[in-house]
Amino acid sequence: MKLNSYGKINLFLDIKGKLENGYHALKTVMQSIDIYDEIILTPIKENKIIIECSDPSIPINENNTCCKAAILLKKTYDISTGIYIDIIKKIPAGAGMAGGSSNAAAVIKGLNELWKLNLSQEEMCGIGAQVGADVPFCLLGGTCLAEGIGDKVTVLNDFLWNNILLVKPEFSISTAFVYKNLDPKYYNSYADNKMLLHISLKNYMSAANCLSNTLEKVVEKFHPEIKDIKRLLIDLGAVSSIMTGSGSTVFALFKDNDSLNKAYQIASNIYPFTFKTKASKYGVKFID
User: Fold this and answer.
1) Is there a single domain that holds both residue 58 and residue 135?
2) Torsion of CA 86, 121, 158, 41, to 10 degrees
3) When you count CB atoms within 10 A of the terminal residue's CB, does the N or C end of the chain come out lower?
4) 134 plus 204 within the same structural domain
5) What are 284's strand-pairing partners?
């Protein structure tokens, strides 16, 4: 069985405060994009989980999100057979694009079919939330509001945008590091943001002008290059530009394909990990 697991960007991300359990409460609008990893699931008779990955920097032990998802399903539903999981990576790691979360979502959806678990979307999201806060969104895909620690997900009108440029600088950054260095004075920085209103009205250009990310304030202090990338993309004609999630990827929205292609030609000569993409309605998609 083959599935595509799609990456995401955060169109809007505001931190509301810190919870007693140490996690942060947030409000974010997440958008699936048309960059995906391939997940190939092959049942095996042995009662074990075997993982291979095209990216040698990704762990293939119990720290891998796919492994965590498979272990959780096996234990919860008393599955005595095994699974071979092959991960073909295209989503950059450490980029704030939910690559690991979307991989886990694909494993949950795929194993639900292979192991005939007949889980509902809600039940799969419950399993996913135990693996990672972004996994429920990745199971749903499209355009969603995520609240709580990111695990309370509401589907929104699709944000239709075809001309998106991603720039991944050479450095990656740990989500835990970013939250550890988040100053409480930044909480509720964007409480009055109108992103949700504009998406509900399908006013995409107005929504594009509401891009906001509290975590960007943290990352820019340690990596001023984020500001440089945003400035470059705006100078190249972007409607707006912002860092996604906890970084390090910066994305920009362009009005049309011509301006996107011109910006790509210049940006890709400076930053090798530059990608053209578009909004996607899928978080996970069955291929065969």
Assistant:
1) yes
2) 10
3) C
4) no
5) 5
CB 279 within 8 A of CB 160: yes
CATH code of the domain in which 105 resides: 3.30.230.10
Residues 111-156 have pLDDT tens digits of: 999 999 999 999 999 999 999 999 999 999 999 999 999 999 999 9
Q: Strands 164-167 and 212-213: what pairing?
A: unpaired
User: What's the pLDDT score for residue 4?
Assistant: 98
Which residues are known catalytic residues?
8, 134
Let me know whether 270 and 209 are in one domain.
yes
Nearest-angstrom CA–CA distance, 117 and 131: 18
Instruction: Give mean pLDDT, residues 244-248.
Output: 95
Give the separation between CA 274 and CA 280, rounded to whole angstroms: 18
Record the pTM.
0.96
Same domain as 206, residue 76: no
Give me the residue label for tokens 């192991």.
Answer: 115
The domain containing residue 16 runs over which residues?
2-156+281-286
- Tally of domains in the chain: 2
pLDDT in tens, 35-67: 999 999 999 999 999 999 999 999 999 999 999
